[in-house]
Amino acid sequence: MIFNKIGIIPNEKKDFELENTEKLIKYLLNKNINISFDEIYFGKFSGHGINYINEDDLYKTCDIFIVLGGDGTILKAAAKASVYKVPVIGINLGRIGFMSEIESDELYLLENLFTGDFEIKNRMMLNVEVIKENGGITHAGMALNDAVVTYGTIAKLIEIDFVCDGVKITNYRADGVIVATPTGSTAYSMSAGGPIIDPNIECFCVTPICPHSLMNRPLIFSPGSVLEIINKNINSEVYLTIDGQINIKLDENDRVKIRKSGFTTRLVKIKKHGFFDVVRAKISENF
Questions:
Q1: The model's pTM
Q2: Domain(s) of CATH 2.60.200.30: residues in the chain
Q3: Which residues pair with 135 in a beta bridge?
Q4: Beta strand 88-92 pairing with 102-103
C-alpha cells in the first residue's frame, strides 16, 4: 500500500499554537507528499502541496489520516474514516493515548509509512441504535470504544434491564452500564473494574458502574450477540453516550440496541511492540 494523499486531523486544544502540526507538515512536505486538511483550517498553514477540502470529500479522497491529539481525537476521526476504509495513525499529544502509535518526538518513525514497514490492525466497532417504544429508531451511530448509559449530571442509581438476543440477562441498579469493545476495554470500562481485553479478540464487554449488588460483575458476550439496554426510569435524566462524543437523552422504555458494526477502524502499527507492552508502559508511566 502506498500513501500518496495524507489527511491531517489536528487538535488545537492539545496542540498549542499548532506547533506539532507545523512540524508534521514540514516533515511531509520534505518528502513531496500531498497533504489535505478540513477546509475549516484554510489559511492557517502555508506550503506548496497543502489542500483544503470539505469534510466529506476529505474522508473520501485521502489514503491515510494522521491524527494529532489524544484518544478522543482518534475516536472522532475513526467513525468517519471507517466508512471509507481509510487507515488512521495517531500522534499522542494527550496524557495516555492507548490508541496513538507514536509520541510527538517520534516523527522520524513515520518513515515506515513510505518504506512499507507497517501493519494495519482492524479494530471491531459497535453499531448503536436508540429504539423508541413504538419501534421507531431515533438515533444510529458507531463506536470504537464504548456505549455508556448513565444518569445526567448527578451521580444517581438508575434501573436498567439488560437483554442479550431477546433474553433478559439481568436488571442493573447502578450508576450506569458500559458496553465496550476490546479497544474500549482500556478506557472507562477498565476504570469501572472491567477486564483488559486483547483487541485481537472480538467480543462485547458489559461493565456495570458501581452496581448496588455484590453479584453484578462484568460480562463478556460473543461478537454475534445483539445486546439491549432498556431504560426503566420514569422522568429521569438518563443519557446514552457514544465514544464520549455524542449524548442522547433516553425516555422511559427506550431501548439501546448494540451489535457488531459492519465497519472496522483500521489502525496503522509501525512499532514492533505488542498490545500488552503498550498497556504496561502506558499504565506504569501514568499511574
A1: 0.92
A2: 125-262
A3: none
A4: parallel
Asked if residue 282 lies in contact with residue 187, where contact means CB atoms within 8 angstroms, the answer is no
The string of pLDDT tens digits covering residues 204-252 is 999 999 999 877 899 999 999 999 999 999 877 999 999 999 999 999 9
Answer for the pair 124, 181: CB distance below 8 angstroms, yes or no: yes
Quick one: DSSP state of residue 186? G
Task: List pLDDT tens digits, range 151-209.
Answer: 987 778 999 999 999 999 999 999 999 999 999 999 999 999 999 999 999 999 999 99
Catalytic (active-site) positions: 71
Please tell me the distance from the alpha carbon of residue 163 to that of residue 157, in angstroms, as a whole number. 19
φ and ψ at residue 230, rounded to 5 degrees: -110, 120
* Fold of the domain spanning 125-262: Tumour Suppressor Smad4 (2.60.200)
Between CA 14 and CA 74 the distance in angstroms is: 13
**SS3 assignment, position 27:** helix
Instruction: For residue 83, give the C-alpha cell.
Output: 466508512
What would be the CATH architecture of the domain defined by 5-118+270-286? 3-Layer(aba) Sandwich (3.40)
Q: 128 - beta bridge partners? A: 141, 258
